Amino acid sequence: MDTVLEVGPGTGNMTVKMLDKAKKVVACEIDPRLVAELQKRVQGTPYANKLQMVVGDVLKTDLPFFDVCVANLPYQISSPFVFKLLLHRPLFRCAVLMFQQEFALRLVAKPGDKLYCRLSINTQLLARVDHLMKVGKNNFRPPPKVESAVVRIEPRNPPPPINFQEWDGLVRIGFVRKNKTLGAAFKNKSVMDMLEKNYRIHCSVKNELIDESFDMKQKVMDILEKNEFDKMRARMMDIDDFLRLLQSFNAEGIHFS
């Protein structure tokens, strides 16, 4: 029997169906009026002691242990919520989530697709993502302006042995202008300044001296060219490409976080 995390239970139509099947439902709701309504709905029924309410903003709440997650998410919190879920420990088994359709398509986009972006590659690094179904706007009252879609996310278990903050630092540089070559993306002054600062910290921690004539830009371009990344574009690169790129930089003491 599973513990289910439900985000945004509303009046509880789906909650009561899950309470029937699950060991326990932890429902996170930001609107106190809906919380009161749902508590009233289960009061005096066998469901009452299987339901735990968490009142507040799910992004600011420490998530409890759960096996599966079910949520219908507003667009503005979709991306931060996905990463909060995927970086949550201990790992859950799977999540079935409803998003605006374009966001759902970004999650499953592949290299070369128009919607392929940092969100796509980061999510797919940490999880297997499947598009389950479209949900037309006429299924809602009042109907929203956009179509929706349901997606299943299963975290990779064990997770990839990689520092996610550093991985994301590299991916972010590549996808700021995803049609640009990496050679052009890395010439950006703020990118170079950040890499040089990190490099100097890395060297001082390891007690390595840096030559007076050291040129960060030249070092970065040499790494890109030596590994044939300088002409590649982020929109065509898959996870293995970015992992190779990260390893090429790390091997030379260059870090992204």
Topology record:
Blueprint: E1 3-7, H1 13-21, E2 24-29, H2 32-42, E3 51-55, E4 68-72, H3 75-86, E5 94-100, H4 101-108, H5 118-126, E6 127-135, E7 148-155, H6 164-175, H7 182-185, H8 189-205, H9 216-226, H10 239-251
Parallel strand pairs: 1-2, 1-4, 2-3, 4-5
Antiparallel strand pairs: 5-7, 6-7
Termini Cα gap: 40 Å
What does the overall shape look like? elongated
Strand-pairing-aware structural class: alpha/beta
Please count the beta strands (DSSP E, at least 2 residues each). Answer: 7
Mean pLDDT: 95
Q: What is the helix fraction of residues, given as a range?
A: 40-55%
Order the strands across the largest sheet as they lie in space: 3-2-1-4-5-7-6
* Subunit arrangement of the protein: single chain
Order of helices and strands: EHEHEEHEHHEEHHHHH
* Biggest beta-sheet profile: 7 strands, mixed
Number of helices in the DSSP assignment: 10
Radius of gyration: 22 Å
Q: Could you list the spans in which at least 5 consecutive residues all have pLDDT below 50?
A: none
Instruction: Give the percentage of residues in beta strands.
Output: 15-25%
